[in-house]
Write a structure and sequence with these properties.
With 450 residues, this protein is of the alpha/beta class. Helices cover 30% and strands 15% of the residues.
């Protein structure tokens, strides 16, 4: 039980140039002011979208049976520990990723339309136009509840101009989030920059001074808030002390890994720019970003995020799993068995990174005893179905998490052909408390989530 007065949900641990948000604590619940109270405040719901490019090998993605008795196919096997938190949704369509008279450019359209459900204007100039993405609807309507309205992260940088796909601007295939019809929200791919953004103080100069001091003396961000943290711990009950200790330990470990992954291997000459901070190992990069997303949700710094594992049309090679070929080149497999197997292995690698994120979310206990994953809705998928056909129906889509009890998970559900994926977004927006009766080309709410 909390030892003193009610703790404000937005309480921060503060030090020189840093401010560390707190996880959900029992002490933040008004019910704890009543001696007879036996429950704590309901944890907030969180929403995230994890994007993979170039479609998937649907033969090794789609379960063969529907309902609760489905077996995870080979690509999804890494998600076995989280089977009861998965809802696999087959048959959904993103119609606005189709040409609809605009000719080639399926990769650019796939990413631009995935969360907007609007037809992107075919242009490689400055007159780009798509639509407001579903994550930004949440940011606009609910972003005032958290320090950051939304968080956009990824593992592959991209150009914001130029021609990247058959007359479509690179902005379309590089950005998943759109704040307005003409304004994409670039993702941050540098784990160090994300960490500093989440935990640096509001004054830019002060934050930079603190960063330089931490690097000079090899200090942790927690060293700057040590006194504040000790004072707070003395005011908390046993459950909250344990939760705080787990959170601060996780924060310190992520900070250590971010620092290690970006550390210079030698003495840089004077005037040399500091390293970009992007790890050379793709898997390590993806897991670090997953750690940061989990921390942001745990500390309620934001409740909506987009996470791009790679840009649409990406031709990244996967030598780390012994595949030297470019991903996009392989996606035009023409039913070649060897290429299909390589696509499956790339798809499985992406799913493994997603499984890591789910593990981090499930490891966090909320104040009411549920897990962070229980209160999340994490959409994983692509705007392309089969990369060889460039189709945008029967997309590879799944939702992880139970949305605070609003989703009945552990099922495979198939929908009629051409049912808009926008219907899923309407249902998710409703669960996030957003007043949006329709979205994009939606025709209603998505049945079958409960």
């Amino acid at each position: 039980m909390f030892k003193n007065s009610l703790l404000d949900r937005r309480t921060l641990l503060k030090g020189l140039g840093v401010s560390v948000a707190l996880p959900a604590l029992e002490a933040m619940s008004p019910s704890l002011l009543r001696a007879s109270a036996t429950t704590v405040a309901t944890p907030p719901r969180r929403l995230a979208f994890v994007y993979v490019p170039n479609g998937v090998n649907m033969q090794t993605w789609t379960p063969t049976t529907l309902g609760t008795n489905f077996q995870l196919p080979a690509t999804l096997e890494p998600l076995a520990p989280y089977r009861d938190s998965l809802t696999i949704l087959s048959g959904l369509t993103c119609d606005k990723a189709r040409p609809n008279g605009d000719g080639p450019g399926d990769h650019a359209r796939a990413m631009a339309a995935f969360l907007t459900c609007r037809q992107p204007r075919k242009t490689n100039g400055a007159d780009i136009r798509a639509g407001v993405s579903v994550d930004q609807v949440v940011a606009q309507q609910r972003g005032n509840l958290t320090r950051f309205p939304s968080l956009e992260i990824g593992c592959e940088g991209g150009r914001q101009a130029g021609n990247c796909d058959s007359g479509y601007s690179c902005a379309y295939s590089s950005n998943l989030a759109w704040r307005s019809e003409t304004t994409p929200v670039p993702k941050e791919v540098n784990p160090r920059a994300v960490f500093d953004r989440l935990f640096a103080g509001p004054a830019v100069g002060e934050a930079e001074q603190a960063r330089l001091r931490r690097e000079r003396y090899n200090q942790s961000i927690l060293d700057f808030v040590h006194e504040d943290a000790n004072q707070l711990m003395n005011r908390l009950g046993a459950n909250d002390q344990r939760r705080m200790d787990e959170y601060l330990t996780s924060l310190r470990e992520v900070e250590r890994r971010v620092t290690q992954s970006t550390a210079s291997t030698g003495n840089l000459p004077q005037g040399t720019p500091r390293p970009s901070g992007v790890p050379g190992d793709y898997g390590q990069h993806a897991r670090l970003m997953g750690d940061l997303l989990a921390l942001a949700f745990q500390a309620d710094l934001t409740r909506v995020s987009t996470f791009v594992l790679a840009n649409e049309g990406s031709n990244r090679n996967y030598r780390l799993i012994n595949i030297p070929d470019g991903h996009h080149d392989l996606s035009h497999h023409q039913n070649n068995a060897e290429k299909l197997d390589k696509i499956h292995r790339i798809n499985r690698f992406h799913v493994q990174q997603f499984a890591y994120l789910l593990g981090k979310l499930r490891s966090v206990r909320e104040a009411d005893g549920s897990t962070l994953l229980d209160n999340c809705m994490i959409v994983y998928g692509s705007g392309n179905g089969d990369g060889n056909r460039h189709n945008h129906d029967d997309l590879p889509i799944l939702v992880a998490g139970k949305g605070g009890g609003s989703i009945t998970a552990g099922r495979h559900v198939r929908f009629p052909r051409n049912l808009p994926i926008a219907n899923l977004y309407v249902s998710l927006l409703e669960r996030m408390g957003c007043n949006v009766p329709s979205f994009g080309d939606s025709t209603g709410r998505l049945p079958g989530l409960t």
